[in-house]
Specification:
The protein has 137 residues and is mainly alpha-helical. The chain has helices at residues 2-5, 7-29, 47-53, 58-71, 78-110, 114-136. It has six helices and no strands. α2 (7-29) packs antiparallel against α6 (114-136). It is a multi-pass membrane protein.
Amino acid sequence: MLFERYPAIQTALRWVGSAYLLYLAWKIASAPPPNLKAQTHSIPFTFWQAAAFQFANPKAWVMGLALMAGFLPESGQPVFNALLLAGFAEVVALPCIALWAAFGTAIGQWIKSDGAWRAFNITMGVLTAACVVLILG
């Protein structure tokens, strides 16, 4: 409804989102390979730290806003519809995240050299930048 009334907002979001994706693509493609020989171990977030981080995570906000803007029904109870949509999103997200994590673990087992890491980062950067074609196309 907001985008129907003010289509310039949607256009602006497309351009800003595309610019952000291109920035991320550059950061990914130009990222140095990790120091695989380092013996330092970082402490991962606790469950509560990770949950709190989602409030500062721009990707989570963009995903949530896009989900609501694109799929929230206009009829019915807004709170019920939003909760139902959030529930469906979690049913889809959990297996996708698990698959993503498994893929990352498997890729990490194969990429052992600096050159392989650079090639992987460049490939991921190019694929991220290619998403802009879908957004603006």
